[in-house]
Structure formats: structure tokens, C-alpha cells
Amino acid sequence: MRVVIAEDSVILREGMVELLTARGCEVLATAGDGDELLSAVAEHLPDVAVVDIRMPPTHTDEGIRAAVRLRADHPGVGVLVFSQHAVPSLAAQLLAGDPSGVGYLLKERVSATADFIEALRRVAAGGVALDPLIVSRMLSNGTRPLDRLTAREREVVDLMAQGHSNRSIAGRLVISERAVEKHVASVFLKFDLPSTDADNRRVKAVVTYLQEVGP
């Protein structure tokens, strides 16, 4: 099985290379961001690509956007999303159209190496491998976007709606500015707001929030 790995964490990336190589897989290339992933797949045409969701430069949805593009450009290449983030809407994007050769596993819920390898082989062969938690959330994803947020994320987007900057939000919630950035990025993901050239997701997130909470 020929594999390309896209993971921005060097330690995790090198660990996966050692793991897959020891299990008889051929790792053709590794990538640290979405652009490198697309280039590596175009050059090597692997059987399957392992992709994280959040990658540079913004660490929000670059990986999943690259995965969707990869499926469009190379429909014969399987895509296994391997992430710590359970976002049903992103799984739905991958499954749109032809759902064959797609997987979405959560890092903390893969308890055995053999399970990961088996899922990888299934995806490479054109099958589907979805974490049961992802399936459950997809089936119940009729909930409002606001219901997807944690209590802290709701606090953050509420302060965003009041016009506070990340620095101001950090001061009010007594957390680091970096923590605020992570919460904001998570809000963007859960509100299904992909990156754009104009990068007006902050405004869109506030509009979505205000529409949900009502007058």
C-alpha cells in the first residue's frame, strides 16, 4: 500500500512513517501543509493519503480543504482524515458525491495500531472507514450551529458579537490570546465557515451567532 502523509506535527508525522513502514506500507512522501499534500499526491499518485484537518498557515480547515480538492483532482486516491477534531460537516464534505475511498478517524479513539492499518487498507481499496462518533453526530446534525459550540466557545463568540478583539476577549475571560485564537478557529469550523481570500469569517460568525440567539 502506497501512502502520502499530511501532518503538521513533525513528531506525529515521523511516528506515522515508522509505524506504516514497519507494517509493510510504502510511505512515498510527507507534507506539512495542504499545498505540499496536493503536490505530493500529484507527483506520486498514492493509494491513499492520511490527512489532518488543521494545518498551516491558520490551523483551521486547510487540511480538509486540501482533501476535498484532492478527491476532485484524483478520485482514485483514497483519503483518510486522521484528526482530534470531530466535525460532522467536514465529514459530509468528504462524502459528498462519490463516498468511496473515504475515512475519518479520531486520533484519541484509535486504540490499536491494527485497527488503523485495517481502516487505511479499506479506504485505499475504495471502502469507507468512519469513526462511530462521527456517524452519530452526522445523523444528529440537525441541531442548530449554536448547539455545536462548547460553553467557552459561546462566551468567545458572544464577546466577538459585542465588538471585542481577541486581546480584549483574552483579558475578559482571563485566558491567553492564543487560547482565544483556538476557540475562534473552532467556532469557524463548527459554523461551517471555510477560509476565503477576504477572510471575513469573523463577521459571518457573528452574523450566524446573532441569527441563532435572536432578538
TrEMBL record:
GO terms for molecular function: DNA binding. InterPro entries: CheY-like_superfamily (IPR011006), NreC/VraR/RcsB-like_REC (IPR058245), Sig_transdc_resp-reg_receiver (IPR001789), Tscrpt_reg_LuxR_C (IPR000792), WalR-like (IPR039420), WH-like_DNA-bd_sf (IPR036388). Gene3D superfamilies: 3.40.50.2300, Winged helix-like DNA-binding domain superfamily/Winged helix DNA-binding domain. Keywords: DNA-binding, Phosphoprotein, Transcription, Transcription regulation. The keyword Acetylation does not apply. SMART domains: HTH_LUXR (SM00421), REC (SM00448). One of its GO terms (biological process) is phosphorelay signal transduction system. The modification 4-aspartylphosphate is found at residue 52. CDD domains: LuxR_C_like, REC_NarL-like. Residues 142-213 form the HTH luxR-type domain. Pfam families: GerE, Response_reg. Residues 2-122 form the Response regulatory domain. PANTHER family: TRANSCRIPTIONAL REGULATORY PROTEIN NARL-RELATED, TWO-COMPONENT RESPONSE REGULATOR. This is DNA-binding response regulator. It comes from Streptomyces finlayi.
